[in-house]
Write a structure and sequence with these properties.
single chain, mainly alpha, 0% strand, elongated, Flagellar FliJ protein
Length: 123
Amino acid sequence: MLANLTHSTRLIRLETKLRMQLERLEGMLSNGLEGIDKEAHTARVKRVKSQISDQSALWEAFKRRDMRLDAVIESRLSSQSIAQWRFYKEAWRRLTAEQQEIEERLQLARGQLTALQNVHMAI
């Protein structure tokens, strides 16, 4: 069961990271940033979308295995415990995604802060 939760964590984190990368890339175009190599940008967007597709396929395979494991676990639990188990899993998934999103935003903010400090020192 622990291995299953570990795999789920990895997939959730990967999905969140890729989704946020795609949002940033799409935001770059909508902000009209000059100096962007459009061809390289388009290739990067295509690559991230391909990675999202691959991650989705992995997630589907994981969900099938997770459903089988849930059936085994739930066969040994009371109806009240089953409800608690399902609530725990959903809350855990949501919190894992939120944690990854916060970590990604912090990493981006740190990078921006470093860039600003470098510009300030160059002035």
